Amino acid sequence: MKKALIVWGGWDGHEPEQVANIFARVLREDGFEVEISNTLDSFKDEQKLMGLNLIVPCWTMGKISNEQLNPVLKAVQSGVGIAGCHGGMCDAFRESTEWQFMTGGQWVAHPGNDGTPYIVNITNVKHEITAGISDFSVRSEQYYMHVDPAVRVLATTRFPVADGPHVGNGPVDMPVVWTKVYGSGKVFYNSLGHHADVMASEPCLTIMRRGFVWAAK
């Protein structure tokens, strides 16, 4: 049986506990043995991490120590998958550039804030994560990201929708869903999921489910 560790915490506004519980249910439905933790100290056990198939961070902002970070980096480089969403993975530890190097991007803005209506465009219809999924609309935070040019983009969203200092730059297609590798580990990210209800909606939940399976292979 594949093993997954979900670690949740940080800023409560992203409903990390609720999102972690949704992810745990989905993973168990797909045959994973799941452990849920609400402390970053769970990352300190390098031997345990190396025995996992998947790490799922749900931790917005906050700080991570080298003792907590380095075992994660080593595990993913060795082949353990990592997958997450929204600020829980790509606005997790703003001071940790190595975390950002691993995950492939960092949140920098969400013009219009929560409740902004926008379209998610599926740009890779052949990948196993997005196959059969059509473009869809969502009303949530539209994440403006600084993104690693090495990521494999599966879905994008068009800026600008809401007003802001970015508007004068003209239209920009911002990555929403991507994959990459870090060492031998597979990395999956989905920028949707400001609240648990967004993450529980379709097709967002299916994208996450498939992303977990892909990253854990």
Could you explain the architecture of this structure?
The radius of gyration is 16 Å and the shape is globular. The strands form 2 sheets. It has a 9-stranded mixed β-sheet. The protein has a two-stranded antiparallel ribbon with strand order 5-8. The longest helix has 14 residues, at 16-29. Strand 10 (172-182) and strand 11 (185-190) form a beta hairpin. Helices cover 29% and strands 33% of the residues. The protein is built from 7 helices and 11 strands. The protein has 217 residues and is an alpha/beta fold. It has one domain (3-216): Class I glutamine amidotransferase (GATase) domain (Rossmann fold).
Note the topology.
Blueprint: E1 3-10, H1 16-29, E2 33-37, H2 46-50, E3 54-60, H3 66-78, E4 81-85, H4 86-90, H5 97-103, E5 105-109, E6 116-122, E7 136-140, E8 144-147, E9 152-159, E10 172-182, E11 185-190, H6 196-200, H7 204-216
Parallel strand pairs: 1-2, 1-3, 3-4, 4-11
Antiparallel strand pairs: 5-8, 6-7, 6-9, 9-10, 10-11
Give a quick set of tags describing it.
nine-stranded mixed sheet; globular; Rossmann fold; alpha/beta; 7 helices; 217 residues
Tally of individual helices: 7
Helix percentage range: 25-40%
C-alpha-based Rg, rounded: 16 Å
Structural class: alpha/beta
Any idea of the CATH topology?
Rossmann fold
Give the CA-CA distance, first to last residue. Answer: 12 Å
SSE string: EHEHEHEHHEEEEEEEHH
Q: What is the number of strand segments? A: 11
User: What is the domain tally?
Assistant: 1
CATH class: Alpha Beta
